[in-house]
Amino acid sequence: MDFLRPASWEEALAAKAEHPTAVPIAGGTDVMVEINFDHRRPEYLLDLNRVGDLTEWEVGEDTVRLGASVPYTRIMESLRGELPGLALASHTVASPQIRNRGGVGGNLGTASPAGDAHPALLAAGAEVEVESVRGSRLIPIDAFYTGVKRNALAADELIRAVHIKKADGPQQYSKVGTRNAMVIAVCAFGLALHPGTRTVRTGIGSAAPTPVRAKAAEEFLNAALDEGGFWDSGKIITPSAAKQFADLCAASCNPIDDVRGTASYRRHAVGIMARRTLTWAWESYRGTAATTEGAA
Amino acid sequence: MRVNFTVNGRPQEADDVWEGESLLYVLRERLGLPGSKNACEQGECGSCTVRLDGVPVCSCLVAAGQAEGREVVTVEGLADYAKHRSCGSSRGTSLQEAQDWAAKGHDSQTGEGSELAPIQQAFIDAGAVQCGFCTPGLLVAADEMLERNPNPSDADIREALSGNLCRCTGYEKIMDAVRLAAARQGEAV
Hints:
The complex is a heterodimer of chains A (296) and B (189).
Chain A: E1 2-4, H1 9-18, E2 23-25, H2 31-36, E3 44-47, E4 57-59, E5 63-67, H3 72-78, H4 84-91, H5 96-99, H6 104-110, H7 117-124, E6 126-132, E7 135-140, E8 145-147, E9 150-151, E10 158-165, E11 171-176, E12 187-194, E13 199-205, H8 215-227, H9 230-233, H10 239-251, H11 263-293
Parallel strand pairs in A: 1-3, 2-3
Antiparallel strand pairs in A: 4-5, 5-10, 6-7, 6-10, 8-9, 11-12, 12-13
Chain B: E1 3-7, E2 10-14, H1 23-30, E3 49-52, E4 55-58, E5 71-73, H2 78-87, H3 95-100, H4 118-126, H5 135-148, H6 154-160, H7 172-188
Parallel strand pairs in B: 1-5
Antiparallel strand pairs in B: 1-2, 3-4, 3-5
């Protein structure tokens, strides 16, 4: 095994081009587990800890450009206003020790369907900035996950940053597990209200081969909210609409039975989380709408 | 490969390190610092917790090469670290201090006679140590929390220690110990 230690992003890209099989390591919270357990013996480890840009973020007008290695702890502490869904998701990641090392770039690189960040990214709307010596490109988050632990990266590409839409409305995140900490999701659900475009977006984790959006549920709810004038009136969402939304979210899952839970439990739980997160987020939207309109 | 880094204030050099080796392995097997414990090797138990440039991490998940040029504090250095923090001086052992050093006998059962960090003393006083395996990780994590948050709520303590598993005491005594350390820290100010 060789340990490659590029001092800059350009050096990292050159190293990855020269050794496409090199395994990038940043927080190490996935890669080191595989090495410790002898599940993986990469020819090259590509250490990204020395590439300082990767731990920085910029808050732009519409998006946050989040460096691939910004630790979850930083996201929780510093980006709760701009990225509330991702901040909530970050808080459910493992333990303080893991959150101090791990970041969204690693979650995307591993592309596990159980990765905690994915539902929040899908719901908020995001693009993954990847780069190689051949150039840079932005991959829409919907096109990023291609299979179980597979993503759209080419062999010579590295994840540099994620461009995440700044929240323009309430966002929620929910995760089912046996404990509050140190737990891999049985399933997870992210929801974001986008009052600017009058749309609702979702993200589901651990209930299909890849993280997915519940597109049919989103379309149903967007139409229902629009037709009923809910965005303007801030009315309570009717229970039948919330139930239909929840059922469609559950139907968009394609889960398996495994040690953490059965497929039918996962479908059921996703439906419950969909209804709850919608209710929490909509209540918060109604609160905000009431304040801004000065209505009682 | 060779790894140069600072451990408990002293520059260290580890040779013949395998590229896939963890920082934990280097500390325990190459530097003779077995305080950080090796249990799950997957970041689940926290018994290998050390501070890397001040930040608590699972040393089993840090590749040895990633520690190059960085500062590590282990449970062995916790008393010194806490002492220098309270004095506000820089850490480490001077050449003179190192040369003057002599082994002193002390009661290893209770730690009497040896210098302990306040959090270590609180763990002893509260009876928060049973088999002791999780203790080093808990001490490092708890000490860091008290540095950041001198007046923690129970929820703060539980969250800060949520990545450290204990299979003996049931956590109540551990909670007591951290509350005790926080109270003593408050009195001292």
